[in-house]
Amino acid sequence: MTATVNVYLDKQEYGKDKVRLLKVHKDTNVHRVDDLTIRCLLSGSSFTTSYTEASNKAVVATDSIKNTCYILAKSSKVVDTLELFAAELANHFLNTYGWVEGAHVTIIRHRWARMIIDGKEHNHSFWRDGDETRQTEIFIKRGPNCKGRRTIDLKSSIAGLLVLKTTGSSFEDFVRDEYTTLPEAKDRVLSTCVDATWEFNVPAVDSVNVLSTLGQIPFNTIYDSVRDVTCDIFAKDESASVQATLYKMAAKSINNWKWLERVSYALPNRHFFAVDLNYFRGTKNLQEHADVYQPVADPSGLITATVARSLSARL
Ligand SMILES: O=c1[nH]c(=O)c2[nH]c(=O)[nH]c2[nH]1
């Protein structure tokens, strides 16, 4: 029995997720590695019938999409710049399959730090120095009227950068009412797991110019810089709140880089509460006496914001 037709396919994207890939750069005997997890999703009106009429005529198998990731990783010269490799992949799908209207590629890079052996960086041995990842997400679309044009939405992120400072953070002067139990804190432990995202301002370009246009943006330097700014401000700011520190971090990176349009942070406030030890022989461990804390995994605060370049700054 056919379903009643008071519905329509509103949107669709399909492809391969969690394609795992390790690229070893062997150009010298000091090897470098890029350990990636890739998602490639395709979209376009030609795929509608694969959902609504069970027709696979336009469907590029997700297995072929996976193979493409490996084939391009073999030939690519830019795997170590996530944004450019993501653009190469997305562009490939648009150039190869004329009916694909949008290619949406997300790449996560997992950390491998060089081992120090006998006091020296080792040529080909690495260790996982944390769960933090670098990520990028690109969505390249064919121009609606001019098929040779491409519009590019591009953003990159740091996810899971776990940081902690033991002083230089306060939280005072907040609302006190009958719901409040939290004491004012002049000096507290501050810890968060940073998710930072920066959105690039990329003009629409002709299909042949996608990679050369993006090639002008110093993506790896921007990533290093946003990470440095995050750590620098986290460490040096006399923080009045997570909100105030977040704003300084985001504003600084927008001011540093003309390519950045918006910078967002999501900062969980991982609480460390001083343990009240007064019950044990009057032991003082609160306020200025605190040095034993209880980390509280749940619940955590969550402070999020996006800071954007103002229109006047674009002129
Ligand atoms: O930096 C903070 N911001 C808050 O909004 C908040 N709320 C809270 O209980 N502790 C904190 N800390």
Automatic annotation (TrEMBL):
Keywords: Oxidoreductase, Peroxisome, Purine metabolism. 5-hydroxyisourate binds at T62, D63, F171, R188, V242, Q243, N269. SUPFAM superfamilies: Tetrahydrobiopterin biosynthesis enzymes-like. It is an enzyme of class 1 (oxidoreductase). GO terms for molecular function: urate oxidase activity. The lineage of its organism: Eukaryota, Fungi, Fungi incertae sedis, Mucoromycota, Mortierellomycotina. O2 binds at T62, N269. InterPro entries: Uricase, Uricase_CS. Urate binds at T62, D63, F171, R188, V242, Q243, N269. It catalyses: urate + O2 + H2O = 5-hydroxyisourate + H2O2. This is Uricase. It comes from the Eukaryota. Catalyzes the oxidation of uric acid to 5-hydroxyisourate, which is further processed to form (S)-allantoin. It is found in: Peroxisome.
